[in-house]
Amino acid sequence: xxxxxALATAIPAALLLVSFVAHAQGAGxxxxxxxxxxxxxxxxxxxxxxxxNVCRGCHMSDGKxxxxxxxxxxxxxxxxxEAGGYPIDVVVNGQRGMPAFGAMMSDAQVAAVVNYLxxxxxxxxQDAVTADDVKAVRx
Length: 139
Description:
- By secondary structure, the chain is mainly alpha-helical.
- 48% of the residues lie in helices and 3% in strands.
- It has a two-stranded antiparallel sheet with strand order 1-2.
- Strand 1 and strand 2 form a beta hairpin.
- The chain is globular, with a radius of gyration of 14 Å.
């Protein structure tokens, strides 16, 4: 099995586990929303839904991150989110222990979750990023 094939199999499995754990902790999606995306690509379109199913498992429901098996940075009041290009790059290409989600999200989805992060959790960055901004960051 090639590294790419192994990675393509491992990431969705890990995301499934993260979403299951978050849902089991009582902070999962409502009964009217699907619990998980099916397949390799995410189906959620709103920043809030993407955060809930993709990001919350590591960064916690309050966005304050966690320390345990790894260190998951706080997104709350995070000055690194001030310039919209930085969080776009991190979501698309990954960084350190955070996997790259670019292949699993469309440009519009990346923009939605980045805009959600930049306007929630004590972040007040109102200059919205666009799908075109995401397209420019993709490698």
